[in-house]
Write a structure and sequence with these properties.
CATH superfamily of the largest domain: NAD(P)-binding Rossmann-like Domain
CATH class of the largest domain: Alpha Beta
Helix content: 25-40%
Structural class: alpha/beta
CATH architecture of the largest domain: 3-Layer(aba) Sandwich
Number of helices: 10
Strand order of the largest sheet: 1-11-8-7-5-6
Number of domains: 2
Distance between the termini: 43 Å
Number of strands: 11
Mean pLDDT: 92
CATH topology of the largest domain: Rossmann fold
Low-confidence stretches: 1-13, 17-23
Shape: globular
Order of helices and strands: EHEHEHEHHHEHEHEEEEHEH
Bound molecules: nicotinamide-adenine-dinucleotide
């Protein structure tokens, strides 16, 4: 197997080192999210520049509530990417003890601000605040995360609209490496509204055409299910959840997990073990994370284009 997707990469530096020992499997191709995100960011930057030519500066705003360090890093990375793409970026913060009304009023201000084309409410919000209510307050036309119920409804209808950023980043990563999900058996582990559930829907949409199994914390014999996947996407937030025994030889493995450990960030997949079995695998960090950010920018420039259709 291993060639099921036909994704030869000409550059051997994209392969992880072979496992030691006799009969070691062909090592997996590493799918670099940094490389694919740079390509998407370049496309976004060109679209931002063409809007600038029409006198429109594209703007992205973030709202961060509280002082969670991981969230601060995510927000900083989003601003850095927006600036690289030539967007204006607006960095709003509220203290952890902000009221729900205060959060909603900042969102309302951003909805009304013509400089803001896309916005992100950085989730999760501190305890006591309702994150999904804040997402519902975002103007669906400015929903850079693609998580507003209206936009999730468009997704269910299969109609165009901003798609959830992490799932669309994953599809874009596969596309960058010439991996076509059509006709493949995809197993998605995790069913959050942020990642797993919309991803399972997107993989099954007409035009994407994977056959999808949605696994979760109540799935019996998880390894037995994941082993049937040609395309395995793991978004559970459980380090080491998937090992070599849960992966079909040659499968494409996308690790969404981002878990802090003593060794730094680790995914949900045991990288070394699985890389010896899989055909291709995303690293953590440097896999899905950069794609999520590039997708936020893509949603934002698309929102600006819809508002200024002459740019298209
Ligand atoms: P979540 O906690 O909301 O959902 C986790 C899902 O995994 C749940 O649906 C649950 O059913 C499933 N799950 C948990 N334990 C399981 C188990 N033992 N077996 C099978 N399924 C199990 O998390 P989330 O927001 O979807 O995030 C998942 C992971 O992805 C986290 O590590 C998060 O940090 C990461 N993440 C990364 C990015 C990125 O851009 N790289 C974006 C979003 C989330």
């Amino acid at each position: 197997m291993g060639a099921a997707y036909g994704y030869p990469h000409p550059d051997p530096s994209h392969r992880v080192g072979a496992a030691d020992g006799e009969g070691a499997a062909m090592p997996a191709q590493v799918l670099s999210g940094r490389e694919a995100a740079a390509a998407l960011e370049a496309e976004v930057a060109a679209r931002v520049a063409s809007l600038a030519g029409l006198g429109k500066r594209v703007g992205l705003a973030t709202l961060l509530v509280g002082d969670d360090q991981a969230s601060q890093v995510y927000v900083r990375n989003k601003h850095a990417a927006a600036e690289r793409a030539g967007m204006a970026s607006f960095d709003l913060t509220l203290p952890a003890d902000a009221t729900q009304d205060r959060v909603l009023s900042v969102v309302a201000d951003l909805n009304a601000d013509p400089r803001v084309d896309g916005m992100i409410v950085q989730l999760p919000l501190p305890g006591g605040l309702d994150g999904t209510a804040a997402v519902r307050a975002v103007d669906p036309a400015k929903d850079a995360d693609g998580l507003h119920p209206y936009n999730l409804g468009l997704l269910m209808l299969g109609e165009p609209g901003p798609r959830p950023a992490t799932p669309s980043g994953i599809l874009r990563l596969l596309q960058h490496y010439g991996i076509d999900p059509a006709g493949r058996r995809a197993v998605v582990v995790g069913r959050s509204f942020l990642v797993g559930r919309p991803l399972a829907v997107m993989l099954g949409l007409k035009g994407v055409d994977a056959t999808v199994v949605a696994a979760h914390s109540r799935t019996p014999d998880l390894a037995g299910i994941t082993r049937t996947a040609d395309l395995l996407i793991v978004a559970a937030g459980r380090p080491g959840l998937v090992g070599a025994d849960g992966v079909q030889p040659g499968a494409v493995v996308v690790d969404v997990g981002t878990n802090r450990s003593d060794e730094g960030l680790v995914g949900d997949v045991d990288f070394d073990e699985v890389a010896a079995v899989a055909g291709a695998i995303t690293p953590v960090p440097g896999g899905v994370g950069p794609m999520t950010i590039a997708s936020l920018l893509a949603n934002t420039v698309a929102a600006a284009e819809r508002a200024a259709p002459a740019a298209g």
